[in-house]
Specification:
This protein has helices spanning 2-6, 9-15, 25-32, 34-43, 57-66, 91-103, 171-191, 224-228, 236-244, and strands at 51-54, 72-76, 85-88, 114-118, 123-131, 136-149, 153-164, 198-207, 210-217, 258-261. The chain is an alpha+beta fold.
Length: 279
Amino acid sequence: PEAELSEGIVDIFEAKGLKIFGPNKSAARLESSKAFAKDFMKKYGVKTADYKIFQGPQLAKEYLEEEASFPIVVKASGLAAGKGVLICFTKEQAIKAVEEIMEEKSFGDAGQEVVIEEYLQGFEASILSVFNGNEIFPFISAMDHKKIGEGETGLNTGGMGVLAPNPKFTQAHFDTFEQEILKPTLEGLKQEELLFSGVIFFGLMITEKGIYLLEYNLRMGDPETQATLPLLESDLLEVFQDAHQGKSLDLKWKDAKSCCVVMASGGYPLNYDKGFEIR
């Protein structure tokens, strides 16, 4: 629902006195604009990769030609269904990525602005959480497999499979996440008055130098949700209702493991057929 959230569906519901669980249009920018999110992280001390933001291809390509070191990551700033992130190992690949995003508009309007950022080496972890407007209550961790090919090869997707809890993510990692990612995020939300009841998804990279935040999503992650929710013992409706009322949450989890595997149409995540019967 990220497109609807970014267009202000929550604001419309609330203006009509209707209950809705999710971020208002202003808060949804943390997902709908990677540039906005990166500046938010920097302002409030949330550990994230070094980055540059460009509104046009020429300056972006000049930066890649003259200053950048490789590998590097080129991201469409807007919403691209989890597919607007290109890891580039050479200058030529990075320049081609900028051209695809900004000139050829491979991701449509999402590519009007790009974020070019430091490449981080490590393993990823995903943490969903519920925000009640005052506190953030994290879920258990998950491990998303984003690459289309076997052995984590090929293009990034919205996720091809996921494990929960993340087998590599320790309690020490979780404690660091709370101190260095979650707490400054909460402080930033309060300072910027980005207050709502809804979900905050933290996309993390765990490296030898620490835990970095890759991105926020302001809704349930797919396919992380499919693996995480079966492990939740607490009643989901009650969780959402309590959060909407600003109440504290006591989330309870099963001592078990869960996985989800995604079946995608041939050609995904590029050009692929859809709308036919699944057999």
